[in-house]
Fold this sequence. Notes:
The complex is a heterodimer of chains A (318) and B (515).
Chain A: H1 2-29, H2 34-39, H3 48-58, H4 64-76, E1 82-83, E2 88-89, H5 90-125, H6 130-144, H7 147-162, H8 178-212, H9 215-222, H10 227-257, H11 259-264, H12 270-280, H13 283-311, H14 313-317
Antiparallel strand pairs in A: 1-2
Helix pairs in contact in A: 1-13, 5-6, 5-8, 5-10, 6-8, 7-8, 8-10, 10-13, 12-13
Chain B: H1 3-23, H2 26-29, E1 41-46, H3 61-68, E2 75-77, E3 83-85, E4 88-93, E5 99-104, H4 118-129, E6 144-151, E7 154-159, H5 166-169, H6 184-189, E8 197-203, E9 207-212, E10 226-231, H7 235-243, E11 249-252, H8 255-263, E12 267-273, E13 277-282, H9 292-301, H10 304-312, E14 317-318, H11 341-350, E15 357-365, H12 371-383, E16 387-395, H13 396-405, E17 410-415, H14 421-429, H15 436-439, H16 444-455, H17 459-475, E18 479-484, E19 486-492, E20 495-496, E21 513-514
Parallel strand pairs in B: 1-10, 1-11, 15-16, 15-17
Antiparallel strand pairs in B: 2-3, 4-5, 5-7, 6-7, 8-9, 9-10, 11-19, 12-19, 13-17, 13-18, 14-18, 20-21
Helix pairs in contact in B: 9-11, 10-12, 16-17
Amino acid sequence: MRNRVVRRVAGVLGTLFGVAVFVFVMLRAIPGDQITAGLGTEAAALTPAQRVALEHYYGLDESLFTQFFSWLGNMFSGNFGYSARSQQSVLDLTLHSLPVTFELAVFSIVLALLIGVPLGMLAASRTNSPRDALGQVVSLGGLSIPAFLLATTLLSVLAASFGFNPNGQGFAGLLDDPLLNLQQMFLPALVLGFGIAAPIQRTTRTAVLEVRSNDFVRTARAKGVPPRRLQVRHVLGNALVPIVTMTGLQFGYLLGGAVVVEQVFSVPGIGRQVLLGIQQKEYAVVQSTVLVIALAFVIVNLLTDLLYRIIDPRVRAS
Amino acid sequence: MSRGAFSAIGAAAALSIALTGCSSSSGPTTSTGASGTSGGNLVVGVTTDPDTLFPWKATQFQAVNVLTNIYGTLTEFDKDLNVVPGLAESWKPSEDGKTLTLTLRKGVTFSDGSAFDSKDVKASLDKIMDEATAAVARASLSSVKSVEAPDANTVVLHLNTPDAALPANLATVNMAMLSSDDTEEKLNTTPNGTGPFTLKKRVASQSITLARNDKYWGSEKPKLDGVEFRVIPDESSIVSAMQSGNVQLAVFNDPLVAQTAEGGGTITVAKTPQLNYHALQLNATHGELKDLNVRLAIQCAVDRKQVLDTAALGEGEVTGPITSPVFKSDPQQRPCPTRDLAKAAEYLGKAGKAGGLTIKTMVSQGEYATSVNEAQNLKAQLAEAKINLDLEVLESGAFVDRWVAGDFDAAVALNGGRPDPDGMYGRYFTSKGNLNKVAGYSSPELDKLFAEGKATADQAKRKEIYAKVSAELENNAAWIWLFTGYTYTGTTSQVKGFVPMASGSLQYLRTTTLG
């Protein structure tokens, strides 16, 4: 047991270190730096002395080795670096944007489960029937309609036809104005949730079908368990493990992958923070934020594993 | 999972839908700009927030637009881009043109309450000229030898050579006058200018809010109580925000978005021809392009209107080198004003390349909407003249890197224009210009003309000189100038008194009202 924990922690640290190295190298492999990203073609007009002054200002005159280890060392002491663009520490930026994305991810997952699980159960209740086809069509739609298209269409149609566009009002935090915040989160969460509902629907369908073919289900039915109770308690209850796995994976993906939807709906989340960082070549912002996202992913995976122990007694026993 | 848990989730979903439903009527009214009385707060939709608040380093469009409203400059442009007084009430060159004496406006204060005087001007100009500051407008002051402040309201600029373009060069926000007590570090978070508005609040990546500066020196005080620049990263989403009444003004880049905005009926879109120009830059110091005949062949083989129509929906005007309204080049005066394939073949023959040739051309992707389409149309047109454009499509960072290094034979580019032709091209096409490496062309004749243009104060004579510059550039096919696009300024019906400018500047927020 102890060995397993140690191995797991070592694995996590190794993953994070790998991510750190990878992001650091990738960022520097992209042509351009913060000077050309900020000045564009005007950078051509800089005299050599001006360039040196700017490189010093942005810390680009340090060796790569020094840059990497001073950044990593600072991360451990809670100094995530500084964003010259927004004149704020990356830690401050992240403390604002991470909860926003977290809220969006939770909201999306809830909607995805609300759409995906019932649809999956419906589809499994009678295979190759119209209701199965309905489930397949919806999940195919979820998989194949790109988020940016769905998002832009929803936003344009609702704004142009009904004047409804809570996202145009400037972002409201959950604690500052919960009512407006929930309105602003609803459409982005719906778009994301719709996309994620597809894999959840498919997983649910397969898992339910598999569980239903087990002997204990037949036994329960023979014992006279009411159909609804049978479906929810006995079938769904036992089909939860793959659904939870899939949901956990999607949740991790959402923490970093909500960029497009955040962009369209002006949600100041962590995806946009990374995107702006890349555009401006703000190394510290991108490196630190990606590491935070990686950490969140790892934690979600860990929690998913722990959740197995709750829903599946067999895991607990082993 | 119990049935209770399911019901709870169902109830939560119903609640969230109900919340959304009941809000649809409250959306527009909570918008700050819709108050309807004089004053009010205008909301401007922008795709990104400024990358810096320090005016001497700001080149990003959004940063310049915010800072123009916070800081003051010695001279300014009016709506037609004529140079008019700003913090300097008047200026006078000496007989020999080697000094420029500026008389400063009295009673001007910075937003922190301190008085503006010649000490601040001297400190500002000295710092801009100091390489350690890394100010982007440093080269515009290359003719200035020293700055003197004989009394509180007078500044004397001692020049190496006469410089007629200097007053226009002083009008950009990169030449903003800062208080001599301020530092870059301080101004990065707390701007302190003499402009019509002051910074009230900034939420990184979300919004910048300005408040009216009641102590503004202009005879006409700003009327709005405040301006919020609200970040909505996607231009289509800005249109939606305008349709729902949350945003009242925005500047669009993408012609398609502008069309959509206009189609809805609630937004008025004003088109202003831009100073920026689209061009096929040729590097006349490289390979086959060294030969004038090859360049002229390209010049004759391109139908610019076709590039404009296919790549940019016809949204723009065919242009010569100089785009500023006052000095505008006449595109009809160039060799082959219309496409002439026979002439192109003749030039290629003269170059000894009758069989055709290949030119490597770099294009950026993502920098602006029309780049790749322009390149593809040029490639198709030139192929008919046996000139093969070998296109190299680059990510914008890679493009800028190579552009800055002058490391290309030809490049499809969208370059920034300036109101004064010397400021616009002197740095490119004079042999000592700091961008000559990028321009790839200079000649003794151009050096002479640019020097003459700088030394001539008389506006009519300057126009003649720059017409000659324009002819020299086109006759030698230094580059292939294609077209200028439009700046699209979208406003809702409440916005009155805003004047869009060819530079895309939002300077006239100070005369804007919400009706």
